[in-house]
Design a protein that fits this description.
single chain, alpha+beta, Nuclear Transport Factor 2, Chain: A, 7-stranded mixed beta sheet, 7 strands
């Protein structure tokens, strides 16, 4: 095999490894968020990483920067919602130690604000992500979440008081 062929094969192998490492990073992103592992979720980002939630409807754009702020955000959301991501494979473009992707997702979550108010939230959307390889490890530099559809189902306590619930007068 010629040196040129070996170099081309090496380049293809490095690209395949980068693709698989980024796919593992995306899986870790979902696992950490869904399990409420705020420190683990923040760790998938670079030290100065950004999670950017695009404005949706009347809601404001929210931008969280740096691992400390990211961890606090995950903890805050996890206190209200419990859910699961259903992630599609990323459409990756890799260039040396940087990469970018669009990742489509569905997220389904439950919330239980009180005994009288609980429900479900479903969101469909995509992430536009910029990755950076730092000391041989792929991390997220900037992640924009764009929800394109969402449904919230709310449930309320049926009974006004315990005595009515038990059939007492």
């Amino acid at each position: 095999m010629s040196d040129t062929a070996i170099a081309a094969l090496q380049q293809r192998l490095e690209l395949a490894e980068a693709r698989l490492e980024i796919m593992d990073l995306e899986a870790e992103y979902a696992r950490a968020w869904d399990s409420g592992d705020a420190a683990g979720w923040a760790a998938v980002f670079t030290e100065d990483g950004v999670f950017d939630l695009a404005a949706v409807g009347q809601g404001p754009r929210l931008v969280h920067t740096g691992r400390e702020e990211l961890q606090a955000f995950c903890t805050q959301v996890d206190a209200f919602y419990k859910g699961l991501h259903f992630m599609h494979l990323p459409r990756l473009q890799i260039d040396g130690d940087t990469a970018q992707a669009r990742v489509h997702f569905q997220w389904q979550g439950l919330f239980n604000a009180s005994a009288q108010y609980f429900g479900q939230r479903i969101v469909l959307g995509y992430y536009d992500v910029r990755y950076q390889r730092v000391q041989g490890c792929w991390l997220m530099k900037h992640r924009l979440e764009k929800a394109v559809s969402g449904v919230t189902t709310e449930h309320y306590d049926v009974y006004q008081s315990a005595s009515l619930a038990q059939g007492q007068s």
